[in-house]
Amino acid sequence: MTTEATFRLEPLQRKDVRRCVQIEKVLFPGDDPWNAWAFNSELDSGAYYVGAYLDDGELAGYGGLAVAGPRGDEETSVHTIGVAPEYQGRGIGKALLRALLDRADELNAPVFLEVRTDNEVAITLYERHGFARLGLRKRYYRPSGADAYTMGRPRSAGAGTGEAR
């Protein structure tokens, strides 16, 4: 049985992009893992990115939320959540997701994402936090051709429930 990891969530730092790329290559070897340019582009865009840092400062995971739309009528999209395999199952992914959902709730914005149809662990996590399957994107991931579910969570679905906090 795994145990909860001791970590803190902080804004993702540019100095940690190299570590993000390393984690991506391990997590998504059959697809197109993000490179440094992709992460830097996300940070440049003003998207909300957080890192999960261990006590020794090592980056164990990251998550990013894009915000689009006019002020007061935003919608958000989870662009990525990644946890290094050696730290999975310890609450880091859940904490990253909750941080992203807290930001969406601050904006009173709905949240959308895509997830591989064969990633049952992630699908279960998302469903436990108020997401529902909205559709199927055939051959969404490249180059593997894996399908993805589009999932969504309404505005502030987790606010006040204790689950998304």
TrEMBL record:
Gene3D superfamilies noted in UniProt: 3.40.630.30
Keyword Membrane among record annotations: no
Signal sequence extent: none
InterPro entries, alphabetized: AcTrfase_RimI/Ard1, Acyl_CoA_acyltransferase, GNAT_dom, MshD_Acetyltransferase
UniProt cross-references to PROSITE patterns, sorted A to Z: GNAT
N-acetyltransferase domain sequence ranges: 7-156
Pfam families on file: Acetyltransf_1
GO MF entry, a single one: protein-N-terminal-alanine acetyltransferase activity
Keyword annotations of the record: Transferase
The protein, known as: Ribosomal-protein-alanine N-acetyltransferase
Organism of provenance: Amycolatopsis antarctica
